[in-house]
């Protein structure tokens, strides 16, 4: 199904919070998490340990009113100090003979995946490769045979696909020893021929690129691409893009009011950008490197697509000062092709954005999002929710 052609439905406001957990409980949980992490400031191995301190932290009788700036800055620095995961650490997990510790890969991937191992890690995070390695060779052989049977012959859409691939490769300057145009064409053609209900659309090239660039085997790149497209298709078949954009605009107006007002003054229609950013996971707006770094974090989290609107807001907030210096046409140009970003800084902004949102705008969040948020920020402490 062509995502942009999903039938329009009546716009709805975000559902109010109906969780049995109280507003005060959310404050206490996040206060404990921050205090727990700050207490371990001198421990350089925090990322390898379970965060058990949250269960030992006493709770106050009333929720904190607001996190002070110094505390947030201190936490920010500690968080940044613990974000580097080496190639060797990934390889230690990937070279296991019997069983791959996927949960450890998820914990590592939130901090970014080295280019050398990104493709292999993604296969486990997306469930393409099973953790049990006892049948790895036979499973890979079967997948390859099934992929080879899929029709990849040129058809009526081939000319459109080739044109879009050519434009994308000129724009991105991808360097590789592999035949990139052929790989793009084979994977996209195989997907469309294998899924007759799906129509080709240009953004498929953007969504395919990270897998073509990172995953070594063509059949695995196809399976990853199929997983991504199906995830987006399933999401927007149950929630229209109009509903998603309406929810995004509500969050934007509530959480970044100054920038929202500035866009209104400049008559910038942010809905067009939001529709593309939400539908295609920022793959059309971000550089390839930034897209892959973003997907490292996303693939580490179950139901990551539910968190994506908030990351889009974090990008806007990260660029707020720059955007407020521009005029209408310049803003639109910058949003449609975002400058290279330090994705770790944006991710850090994303974390603090949630802290503020949870304290100030808790009614904007759906109840089930709380577990996803805590899983993303602190996998080990999410169990306490």
Automatic annotation (TrEMBL):
SMART domains with a match to the protein in the record: TBC
Molecular function terms from GO: GTPase activator activity
Segments for region (Disordered): 1-20, 35-67
InterPro entries on file: Rab-GAP-TBC_dom, Rab-GAP_TBC_sf
Stretches with biased composition (Low complexity): 51-62
Domain Rab-GAP TBC: 112-302
Gene3D superfamilies: putative rabgap domain of human tbc1 domain family member 14 like domains (1.10.8.270), Ypt/Rab-GAP domain of gyp1p, domain 3 (1.10.472.80)
Protein's name in the database: Rab-GAP TBC domain-containing protein
């Amino acid at each position: 199904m062509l995502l942009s052609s999903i039938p329009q439905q009546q716009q709805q406001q975000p559902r109010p919070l109906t969780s049995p957990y109280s507003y005060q409980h959310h404050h206490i949980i996040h206060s404990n998490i921050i205090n727990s992490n700050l207490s371990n400031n001198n421990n350089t191995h925090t990322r390898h340990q379970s965060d058990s301190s949250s269960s030992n932290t006493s709770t106050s009788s009333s929720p904190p009113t607001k996190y002070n700036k110094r505390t947030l800055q201190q936490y920010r620095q500690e968080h940044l100090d613990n974000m580097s995961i080496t190639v060797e650490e990934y390889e230690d997990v990937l070279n296991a003979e019997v069983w791959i510790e996927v949960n450890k890969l998820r914990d590592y991937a939130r901090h970014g995946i080295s280019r050398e191992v990104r493709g292999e890690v993604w296969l486990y995070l997306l469930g393409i490769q099973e953790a049990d390695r006892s049948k790895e060779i036979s499973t890979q052989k079967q997948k390859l045979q099934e992929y080879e049977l899929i029709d990849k012959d040129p058809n009526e859409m081939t000319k459109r696909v080739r044109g879009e691939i050519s434009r994308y490769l000129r724009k991105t300057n991808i360097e590789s020893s592999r035949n990139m145009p052929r790989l793009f064409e084979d994977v996209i053609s195989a997907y469309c021929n294998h899924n007759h209900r799906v129509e080709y659309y240009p953004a498929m090239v953007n969504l395919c690129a990270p897998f073509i660039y990172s995953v070594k085997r063509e059949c695995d790149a196809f399976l990853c691409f199929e997983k991504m497209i199906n995830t987006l298709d399933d999401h927007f078949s149950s929630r229209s893009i109009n509903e998603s954009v309406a929810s995004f605009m509500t969050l934007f107006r509530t959480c970044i009011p100054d920038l929202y007002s500035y866009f209104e003054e400049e008559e910038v229609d942010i809905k067009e950008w939001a529709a593309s950013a939400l539908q295609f996971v920022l793959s059309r707006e971000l550089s390839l490197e930034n897209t892959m770094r973003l997907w490292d974090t996303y693939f580490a989290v179950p139901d990551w697509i539910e968190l994506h609107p908030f990351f889009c807001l974090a990008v806007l907030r990260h660029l707020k000062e720059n955007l407020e210096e521009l005029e209408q046409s310049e803003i639109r140009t910058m949003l449609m092709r975002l400058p290279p970003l330090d994705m770790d800084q944006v991710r850090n902004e994303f974390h603090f954005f949630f802290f503020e949102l949870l304290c100030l705008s808790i009614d904007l969040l759906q109840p089930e999002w709380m577990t996803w948020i805590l899983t993303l920020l602190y996998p080990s402490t999410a169990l306490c929710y």
